[in-house]
Every structure is written in structure tokens, then in C-alpha cells.
Amino acid sequence: MASQWFINRVGAKSSGPFTSQKLKELASSGGVLASDMIRKEGVDKAVKAGKLKALFPRTSL
Fold first, then answer.
1. Residues 21, 4, 14, 43: is their CA dihedral positive or negative?
2. Which of 15, 20, 23, 48 is deepest in the core (most CB within 10 A)?
3. For residues 31 and 58, which has the higher predicted lDDT (pLDDT)?
4. Total Cβ atoms within 10 A of residue 50
5. Looking at the DSSP assignment, which residues form a beta bridge with residue 37?
6. In terms of pTM, does the model score above 0.85?
7. What is the predicted pLDDT for the residue at 61?
8. Cα dihedral 13, 44, 37, 22 sign
């Protein structure tokens, strides 16, 4: 079964579930911000979306 993700944005209701692919699409289109908290289904602790390199790859200057 594919991973399911939930997005928590300050001042908004939790949204999801989203597949990993959909989460990547949302991140690239601005639907997920680096400051949003996301969590994987079955995991209680959320992390900042910006910490996930798969969503927000670091670019070198």
C-alpha cells in the first residue's frame, strides 16, 4: 500500500490523505509550503515539509 500523507497548516484544518506523488505535485505548485507541517499515516509526529528533500530539494548557489 502506498504511503498516505496529511498536511497541517497554521490556521487551517488538516487536509489529506495524499499520496507521496500528489504531495510532491502540491509542493512544486505551491499547494504545500515549506512551513507546513506534514505527517505520514500511522505516525503521530508531524515535521516541517521543508525538511523533506524529496519535496523541497536544496539548491546550491
1. negative
2. 23
3. 31
4. 16
5. 8, 48
6. no
7. 59
8. negative
Domain topology for 4-51: Dna Ligase; domain 1 (3.30.1490)
Grid cell digits, residue 57: 530539494
The grid coordinates of residue 29 equal: 505548485
Grid cell, residue 27, equals 509542493
CA distance linking residue 2 with residue 56, whole number of Å: 20
- Pick the closest to residue 32 from 51, 43, 41 (CA basis): 51
Residues of 30-39 as b/e, b for ≥16 C-beta within 10 angstroms? eebeeebebb
Cα(29)–Cα(23) distance, integer angstroms: 10
